[in-house]
């Protein structure tokens, strides 16, 4: 099986040139000019006038997540199809064991939900909700034998999947020893709990009050807390979904004093704001997620942090639940609204249209934030995240002149609303390949759901700049 992509403008994190790419088998075999197809069966794709990006990597996705007696709407089938249509060829999901549950059993469940059902490649983070001897043994095995080289901890949600401080310390100590990156949801849960109770007691039950139960200082306090633990243990930590100036300040301050820390943000925090959750007739529930959408002035700060390297990745935190049935469970109590927004399909188009086209990011930074850095941080580079000889032939031929409008009526995600409904887009993934196989053609899905592989990962491949 060979594939020749001709005449596109090839964009990586640090180079840009017009050329041809020849892919043989599952990898890129030649990069050059005027390459000829090796045989008559070679698929030839004309990429003139288009960009050729490495397949994008989304390091924060909930394709399958049971919670609050319900679960996210997508399956690996629907999530992988939506990912590919949006130019994402690989994502990392979070295994979420029950509190005090066995990690091996949870891992087995995630394999059952995904194996043979994904059109794109995928990997897992392992959530750690508590720590004891049995968990330590399981974690050591999972890192060594399963290639799960990142953990997830929740400083929020104590009593469900949140982690206590002593267990957090032990988890980071082990992560340091195993050279595993620890991703963390940072909010001070005690404060969230107190604020929620106070608001509900005052009869403030609508979705617009969600923000007030988790203000920026509560997030910043969570980041500060994590950084203290990272500093003491020397562990490498990764703050998921950074939303505001206050949290960013804590992250930056920690990095400046030598803490091994990286930061992620998501399109929703770059493009939507607090007022969306204030929409009348409960529509605000569509925009309830944690941490919440922030005041608009934070957007400019986050975009600048991305372009200047203070934040390191853009992921989606894709967590689709239906508005009509699941979000509606919180109609009389905002604390019962299912958290999260869908986004796996829209990340790259949004970053291109509202980042690159507005001059807030250049094309290299787009690739770096959404492909190369996630691949390096999470041990997938250079098979994923870049275009070079020997890398997996995961490629996106991107048409920068294809106008469309985002709508739940046309999106491929299995959820009844889109947080970006009505927003115009300027480009789209025209052709997408996964390990040399064309899975999107002229913007239409043509893949199959047995092609996606589970990826055992290596350790983080980035040293923190001093
Ligand atoms: Zn998440």
In short:
Helix content is 30%, strand content 22%. By secondary structure, the chain is α/β, with parallel strands linked by helices. α7 (216-233) packs parallel to α8 (245-256).
Descriptive account of the structure:
The structure is a single chain. This protein has twelve helices and 21 strands. With 466 residues, the protein is an alpha/beta fold. The protein has a domain at 55-377: Metal-dependent hydrolases (TIM Barrel), CATH 3.20.20.140. The strands form four sheets. Strands 1, 2, 3, 4, 5, 16, 19, 20 and 21 form a nine-stranded mixed sheet that branches. α3 links the parallel β10 and β11 (150-154). The radius of gyration is 21 Å and the shape is globular.
State the shape.
globular
Total of DSSP H or I helical runs spanning 4+ residues: 12
- What is the CATH superfamily of the domain at 55-377? Metal-dependent hydrolases
What hetero molecules are bound to the protein chains? zinc ion
Main β sheet profile: 9 strands, mixed
Ranges where pLDDT stays below 50 over 5 or more residues in a row are none
Please compute the radius of gyration using only Cα atoms: 21 Å
CATH class of the domain at 55-377 equals Alpha Beta
Query: Which architecture name of the domain at 55-377 does CATH use?
Result: Alpha-Beta Barrel
Tell me the structural class: alpha/beta
- C-alpha termini separation: 45 Å
Kindly report the average pLDDT value.
96
Task: Tell me how many strands there are.
Answer: 21
Helix amount: 25-40%
The proportion of strand residues reads 15-25%
CATH topology of the domain at 55-377: TIM Barrel
């Amino acid at each position: 099986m060979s594939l020749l992509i001709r005449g596109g403008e090839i964009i990586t994190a640090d180079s840009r040139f017009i050329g041809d790419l020849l892919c043989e088998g599952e990898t890129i075999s030649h990069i050059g000019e005027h390459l000829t197809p090796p045989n008559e069966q070679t698929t030839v794709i004309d990429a003139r006038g288009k960009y050729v990006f490495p397949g994008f990597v989304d390091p924060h996705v909930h394709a399958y997540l049971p919670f609050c007696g319900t679960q996210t709407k997508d399956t690996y089938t629907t999530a992988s199809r939506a990912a590919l249509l949006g130019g994402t060829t690989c994502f990392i999901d979070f295994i979420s064991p029950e509190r005090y549950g066995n990690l091996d059993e949870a891992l087995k469940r995630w394999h059952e939900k995904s194996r043979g059902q994904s059109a794109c490649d995928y990997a897992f983070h392992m959530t750690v909700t508590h720590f004891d001897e049995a968990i330590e043994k399981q974690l050591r095995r999972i890192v060594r034998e399963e290639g799960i080289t990142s953990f997830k901890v929740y400083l929020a949600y104590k009593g469900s999947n949140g982690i206590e401080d002593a267990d957090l310390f032990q988890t980071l100590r082990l992560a340091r020893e195993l050279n595993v990156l620890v991703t963390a949801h940072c909010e001070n849960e005690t404060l969230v709990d107190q604020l929620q109770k106070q608001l509900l007691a005052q009869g403030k039950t609508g979705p617009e009050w969600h923000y007030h139960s988790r203000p920026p200082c509560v997030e910043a306090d969570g980041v500060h807390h994590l950084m203290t633990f990272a500093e003491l243990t020397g562990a490498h930590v990764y703050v998921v979904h950074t939303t505001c100036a206050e949290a960013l300040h804590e992250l930056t301050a920690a990095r400046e004093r030598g803490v091994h820390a990286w930061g992620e943000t998501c399109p929703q925090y770059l493009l939507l704001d607090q007022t969306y959750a204030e929409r009348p007739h409960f529509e605000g529930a569509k925009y309830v997620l944690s941490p919440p959408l922030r005041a608009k002035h934070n957007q400019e700060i986050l975009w600048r942090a991305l372009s200047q390297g203070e934040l390191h990745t853009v992921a989606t935190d894709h967590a689709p639940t239906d508005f009509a049935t699941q979000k509606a469970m919180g109609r009389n109590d905002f604390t019962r609204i299912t958290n999260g927004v869908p986004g796996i399909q829209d990340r790259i188009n949004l970053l291109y249209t509202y980042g690159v086209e507005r001059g807030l990011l250049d094309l290299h930074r787009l690739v770096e934030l959404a492909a190369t850095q996630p691949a390096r941080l999470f041990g997938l580079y250079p098979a994923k995240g870049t275009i070079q000889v020997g890398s997996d032939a995961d490629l996106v031929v991107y048409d920068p002149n294809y106008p469309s409008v985002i709508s739940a009526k046309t999106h491929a995600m299995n959820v009844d609303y889109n947080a970006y409904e009505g927003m115009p887009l300027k480009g789209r993934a025209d052709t997408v390949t996964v390990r040399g196989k064309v899975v999107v053609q002229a913007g239409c899905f043509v893949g199959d759901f047995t092609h996606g592989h589970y990826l055992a990962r290596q350790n983080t491949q980035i040293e923190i700049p001093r």
